[in-house]
Amino acid sequence: MTAALDYFLMSWLDPHLMFLTAAGTFAGIYIGAIPGLSVTMAVSILISFTFKWDMNSALAVISGIYLGGVYGGSRSAILLNIPGAPSAVATGMDGYPLAKRGEAGAAIGLTTVVSVFGGFIGILALAAAAPLVSELALKFAPRDYLLLAMWGILLVGSLSGDSLAKGIFAGAIGVLIGMVGLDPMTAEPRFTFGTVTLTAGISYIAAMIGFFGVAEVLVQLHELHIKAVRQDVSKILPSFGLIRKYLPLATRTSALGVVVGALPGAGGDIAALMAYDHAKRTVKNPSRPFGQGAYEGLVAPESANNAAVGGAYIPMLTLGIPGDAVTAVIIGAMYIHGLKPGPMLMIETPHLFWFQVGSLALANIFLLIFGLTGIRIFAKIVEAPKPILLPLILVLSAVGAYAINNNPADVYWMLGFGVFGYFLKMYGFQVGPVILGIILGPLMDRSFRQAMISAGEDPVQFAGEFLTSPLSAAILAALVLSMASQSSWWRKLRGKRDMHEPLARELEDSASAGNV
Amino acid sequence: MQTIRKSVATFAMLALAGGAMAQSYPEREISGVIQWSAGGATDVVSRAITPHVEEIIGKKIVMQNKPGGVGAIATNFVYQQSADGYTLLYGAENPQLHAVMGIANLDYSKFYPINILGRGKVVVIANNDKPWKSFRELLDDIEANPGKIKMGTAGPGSVPHTVSAMITAVAKLPVTAVPFDGDGPGLTALQGGHIDFMASSLGSAAEHIKAGRMRVLAVLSDTAMTDSALGNIPPITDALPGVAKYLPWGPFYGVFAKRDIPEEAKAKLSAAFRKAAQSPQFIELMNGRHNEIVNLSGEEADAFLKKWQSVTAWILQGAGLAKHSPAEFGIPKP
């Protein structure tokens, strides 16, 4: 145990490792904040030039970049309505309205605190329950991924704004975009029109940069004459009372983040969206209605996506199975450094596990420090003159889109989707459901077919497996419950006494508008 | 205007000639394009050998991943670059099957094989809870319970897919084949009990086998394999002697450049990679991932590639899995 503690504290006591962790975290925040510069990319570039370093130094920097990068995505989402990473898509929903009210400072402050909280829950789960969680993750069969994706796709209801029909339309476009490329199972070209370029499919990050970044820039061109909102940066740190109020929600969404992050087929992006949806369904009296700057809309996704980092490390360190794209790159790096990531890693090199836990914890502390300093300057970005800010965002978006796969086609997609997204936005279509469709469409496609083939292509057997497997039955029950809890008969059953009058009316309106 | 144009042209010619005289290959950084995403098997092998090559040629090789289209994107990209020897393709076996699979028409015959770095071993593994002690027992169980046993597979031309085609060619294999995105996701599903057995590259499975999380039934070879950590693995030919005619077979990794790059670049690159493949660090990595080092270049590598393509394409054709007959592309029968 003392040996474990020694390794845990290694990066805390060695100034060199400490510096690397700090530098990684700092860089990560900015990499995450710039749309398109992704953590995966930063880590894979880093691997090339840490080839000659020892593994510990490389892991220390990566821990920082990873945690910082996941958090950093929220910055641009809040300030510019442009998520810096897919896991920050939900953050902009309520973060940007807050910035428009001049509360960017407070929004970033709260986001930082809950991100760090989520990060610690993830690290705690990694340290205390890694073998348990990884065994649970292995239990997820294709049909469970299908349920998860179905649960996720219901979020269209939360993300579609005024019109559910327009939301579903946007979601369907996303699913269509996600289908382009080689069929993952048969390599049958789909919607490729005989070109090699399209066999690679359409990168969902390129689509995200287009729909959110470029389209938002184009929309904001209409507002060039409007004076920027002055940001109140006098109070950044959320009060203790506020934090305590959101602690139960953040704990629930962090737990969700850990589990979804640990699943090899789902990551922080899906965790954050599910957490946002969870908040929207369960919080009865949000600080403001969701979509207009509810603090809960920041707390839920931001705690979940940082908790997912610890989650993603769980299958990687215990089984050598990557929890997401970043951990896949780390596994590759371990091989190059002469390690053998796999189930034996924890047995043969237990110090590596504790070192990793320790450097993640340290990075998380640095995240709190760097996250809370410099907000004043950051918040000023929103006050920067639009004629300077907007072209800058466009250039960064193009760089980011190219950098995903070093493929110029991604830049064309980004521009095309930007123009398309502009028209969608002008006609009252939300772009959130498009991204949801791109992420979840292929997951549903794959997991449905795997589940159906596993059931011998027998629909009765297929349906039966949802009930006979305890895990599937539990997820199905949760899914049904979360749907039912939104229906009008459920509310009649529960009575409206415990609800605020205006909120109840609002819910009723949305229910009568066909929003189940 | 005329004079300006003339003088510019003269200047350019002079500069080119001067450059050619003063410098020899490589005079600047080389770009390395990896067919698969960061962290994958091809990526690891590519990034492991490159620093040793850089040391020998004295210039950096800037690596970038261009994944997508089972390798077609990167292959096509490198093919479109000028044949100056400054763009290298780090790839795996996949493009050799793109034509018969209807994905793309480009294969390695349009490229010069600088080095076939290594070849992966393939094993058949089973879920721990299954009773089978040998591959024969598995085959008997499959025959007794047609359609009941779930086999993991991956996209057309992948290792699990090709191995199941080989088995189908010599025996009946009435299984439920559940496709995954590759070895990794398949092995994860195997550990969760969502599939019962699967063929996989040994590199992906070795650590899980060592930890006792899955059981290895056979190695795709005609001789048994003995390993200090994995023990004795019987050959697949014990149960299915008919497979022997397709062996040796396995996925491979290599470095390629366009066919018509300058002879000097071919010679220098081949020599550098040949030497780098012998560095102890690289050998250790390849051993650790249970890859055999092949280290072939030029004509020998061409012969290796042709044989691999002919064997694999015709196996797939024989199993009815190819979209186009190999004959359409002039791929000879093995």
From TrEMBL, chain A:
Pfam families per UniProt: TctA
| Superkingdom in the source lineage | Bacteria
Which keywords describe this protein according to UniProt?
A: Membrane, Transmembrane, Transmembrane helix
Q: Which InterPro entries match?
A: DUF112_TM (IPR002823)
Tell me the ranges covered by the DUF112 domain, including all copies: 19-436
TM ranges are 20-47, 104-133, 145-161, 167-184, 191-215, 312-333, 353-375, 387-405, 411-441, 462-484
NAD is among the record's keywords: no
Protein name as it appears in the record: Tricarboxylate transport membrane protein TctA
Name the source organism: Thauera phenylacetica B4P
